[in-house]
Predict the structure.
Amino acid sequence: MRATVNGEPVELPEGFTVAALLQHLGVRGDRVAVERNGEVVKKARHGEQRLAPGDVLEIVTFVGGG
């Protein structure tokens, strides 16, 4: 299945969830925001939100510092 992640086309397995995508990309899910097709996916739904062909995802990682 093809999707776009942060502006780049990617090929993903069918049935991937947001959580599986984050794991696949090596991104820690506790410090990110994910937008799917223009709508924010709440962290509580990362494990159940299935991706579909053509989805456009933006993943933003929070960085702390001072």
The domain at 2-61 is CATH 3.10.20.30 (Ubiquitin-like (UB roll)). The mean pLDDT is 93. The longest strand covers residues 56-61. Strands lie at 2-5, 8-11, 32-36, 39-41, 56-61.
